[in-house]
Design a protein that fits this description.
It contains six helices and no strands. It is mainly alpha-helical and about 100 residues long. The protein has a single domain, classed as Tetratricopeptide repeat domain (Serine Threonine Protein Phosphatase 5, Tetratricopeptide repeat, Alpha Horseshoe), CATH 1.25.40.
Length: about 100
């Protein structure tokens, strides 16, 4: 919980910072608070669709929740964003996650 409190403190000064929000979402996943992590990932991607790392983690969270179709949709959105930014590594990770769901 110490990391969460520290991140919240940083966010009080920069509430829209995608890096801090992403880091906080990952901490929430670690403690099993998927609903708060989901809220943060959606907040990030609504404000900054080019924050590519959040697509993968949101997709994985949705998979764990049994929302396979929703996860596939977010992986697809992430692949588009990764392609647009020229991030082939992220594109390949998202493609692999997507392919795992359609096999």
């Amino acid at each position: 919980m110490e990391k969460i409190e520290k991140l919240r403190s940083f966010l009080s000064n920069s509430p829209e910072d995608p890096f801090l929000n992403h880091a906080l979402a990952l901490e929430y996943i670690k403690i099993g608070n998927d609903s708060e992590a989901r809220r943060l990932f959606l907040k990030i991607l609504t404000r900054d669709p080019s924050y590519i790392g959040s697509y993968y983690h949101l997709g994985r969270l949705l998979e764990r929740s049994g929302e396979t179709e929703n996860a596939k949709a977010w992986y697809e959105k992430g692949m588009i964003a990764a392609k647009q930014s020229g991030d082939s590594h992220a594109f390949n990770e998202l493609q692999a996650a997507f392919d795992d769901l359609i096999d």
